[in-house]
């Protein structure tokens, strides 16, 4: 079933305003949640809205207060967000960097104690559309679900990393966890009582399993890093890179044992024009893209570039209506009743 994008926007905004988000916060959160669905990241779309409503109602996402500027100099900023809505905070950070990079080659911001920001891929286009290279990492120091290679104790979490690479055509939009999947993905499987497509997890003894229940059992299991048993040290290495950028640079890490409702964020933008030049940059990237596209692929199916399917999904759903996670409106029905807001009709 598909739903008009405008109807979902009105519905989502109304629920967020009902629990106390102001107009700007509700607009930013709505845009990012729906963008996740448009890009095909269903567990970070309207399915996740009920989590935000619970967190705002419980005081875990704050809707009042100001961003604290910890440090500011040309090309660098450090903020502490004090659990203000992550989508709104990232919108403010994006505006700052876009203004900053007009005068310099690169600009970077770190954000401590930011509430959940959602789908990283959604934040990339405002930069790539301007010909800028962007990288974004975020992680949660209050959650540990991934063990070191050969270990059984969770020490980091799924640590997504994202990069937007401009081309003369559609941008390359990379967004992936450094583990086999996100925490939300495994929560979704567990809620449905389904086994995983593969042995993506480890039980408490370190044995591979396809049972998502091991993540909530006692003792808890863990999520495998990218590369799994044989090459998981590679994914774990990228996970440590994310920890250094998102937590160590922000000064908001695991030492203080924070709860699960705050994140550390690293966002950096680079202007290719101020290095070898935009033309050289785009010539190189476009050559690489054309080389990939020239490959006929296995069984006549050409290789897919990062973000290609997501952008096609967005265009399709904006035209024909948005597809939601099967459980999204079921999870939101109680909130809609409390707010007196009718559920969207497909």
Automatic annotation (TrEMBL):
Pfam short name (any one): Ldh_2
InterPro entries according to UniProt: Mal/L-sulf/L-lact_DH-like_ah (IPR043144), Mal/L-sulf/L-lact_DH-like_NADP (IPR043143), Mal/L-sulfo/L-lacto_DH-like_sf (IPR036111), Malate/L-lactate_DH-like (IPR003767)
Signal peptide annotation: none
Annotated SUPFAM superfamilies: L-sulfolactate dehydrogenase-like
Keywords attached to this entry: Oxidoreductase
Keyword Oxidoreductase (UniProt): yes
Domain of life: Bacteria
Family: Belongs to the LDH2/MDH2 oxidoreductase family.
Protein name: Ldh family oxidoreductase
Species of origin: Saccharopolyspora gregorii
Taxonomic lineage of the native organism: Bacteria, Bacillati, Actinomycetota, Actinomycetes, Pseudonocardiales
